[in-house]
Amino acid sequence: MDLLSNSDLIVFCFALIIVAFLYSSVGHGGASGYLALMAIFAVPIMVMKPSALLLNLFVSSTSFWFYYKANFFKPKLFYPFAIASVPAAFLGGYITLDTAIYKAILGVVLVFAALRLLGLFSTKEKEITAINIPLALASGATIGLLSGMLGIGGGIILSPIILLLGWANIKEAAAISSLFIFVNSLAGISGYLLNGSSFPIESLYFVPVAMVGGMLGAYYGSGKFSNKTLKYVLGVVILSASVKLIFP
After folding, report:
1. What percentage of the chain has pLDDT greater than the value 90?
2. Where are the transmembrane segments (predicted)?
3. What is the SS3 assignment for 72?
4. Predicted TM-score of the model (pTM)
5. Around Cβ 96, how many Cβ atoms within 10 Å?
6. What are the structural domain ranges in the chain?
7. Following CA atoms 223, 228, 231, 232 in sequence, which dihedral angle do they give, to the nearest 10 degrees?
8. What is the DSSP code (8-state) at residue 247?
9. C-alpha 104 chain-centroid distance
10. Residue 209 in this model has a pLDDT that exceeds 60
């Protein structure tokens, strides 16, 4: 693989396992973490977006399976978000942003992801209330468009919204987010390929590595697993990557 030296590749793969583990444990595909790692290791922009979407597909589907088996998935909460997000993510995947704009927007999104991991946005459960369909549709469309353009699944944004508005508990939000990430990533890749963009073969090499962390994280996360220390470390790493993107 020409993207990374042998020594960097070993460190990258180790970090990739940890990122996939932590994100899948809370029902996420890990795209914001993957993008942060690739930014730190100076992976070309043209490789970052499709690679993150591809890894999202595998890790989020694994995460969803474990949460689904544990009976945390609520279809009625998922459909309003997905109906609006899928076409928006397809459109976002079709759009090719200027490199400077891509880095700036991604950097801001990564700041959000990092601050959430560091505990700035509360994930405490509130009293469950009925979902507001128009608001869910609008949220899904906005997150979907952003997901397709940047190569993220959107779970890092969707989960706090669901919890903040009291539409589901933490485990249910994780189950919804994992499938939400999967369909958005699939739509984003479809739009990306339809635009005539080539898919980097290097992306495929990272899949089995991420799957190791994803399967372990989903298994423990759908149970009672929680590891705040590792999340704080990951939050600092992602925050560092966002600074590198915003202020190259």
Report:
1. 26
2. 6-23, 35-58, 78-97, 104-123, 143-166, 173-193, 205-222
3. coil
4. 0.84
5. 14
6. 6-246
7. 170
8. -
9. 18
10. yes
- From CA 66, how far away is CA 91, in angstroms rounded? 30
User: What band does 29 get if pLDDT is binned at 50, 70 and 90?
Assistant: confident
- The residue with tokens 């790493």 is 237
Beta strands in the chain (DSSP E): none
Question: Is the pLDDT higher at 131 or at 202?
Answer: 131
Write the DSSP symbol of residue 236: H
What CA–CA distance (Å, rounded) separates 105 from 146?
A: 9
Residue 70 structure tokens: 């544990």
Separation CA 166–CA 169 (nearest Å):
7
The predicted pLDDT at position 2 comes to 66
Q: What is the DSSP string of 170-194?
A: HHHHHHHHHHHHHHHHHHHHHHHHH
The Cα–Cα gap between 240 and 242 comes to 5
Residues with Cβ within 8 Å of residue 138, at least 6 apart in sequence: 84
- Rg (alpha carbons) of the chain, rounded to whole number: 16
Count of H-run helices and E-run strands, the chain: 10, 0
Contacts of 134 (CB under 8 A, 6+ apart): none
Q: Which amino acid is at 235?
A: G
- In this structure, the chain runs to a length of 248
194 and 99 Cβ atoms separated by less than 8 Å: no
Angle subtended at Cα 45 by Cα 39 and Cα 50, rounded to the nearest 5 degrees: 100
Using an 8 Å Cβ cutoff, are 180 and 78 in contact? yes
**By the 8 A CB rule, do 25 and 220 touch?**
yes
Contact between residue 51 and residue 65 where contact means Cβ atoms under 8 Å apart: no
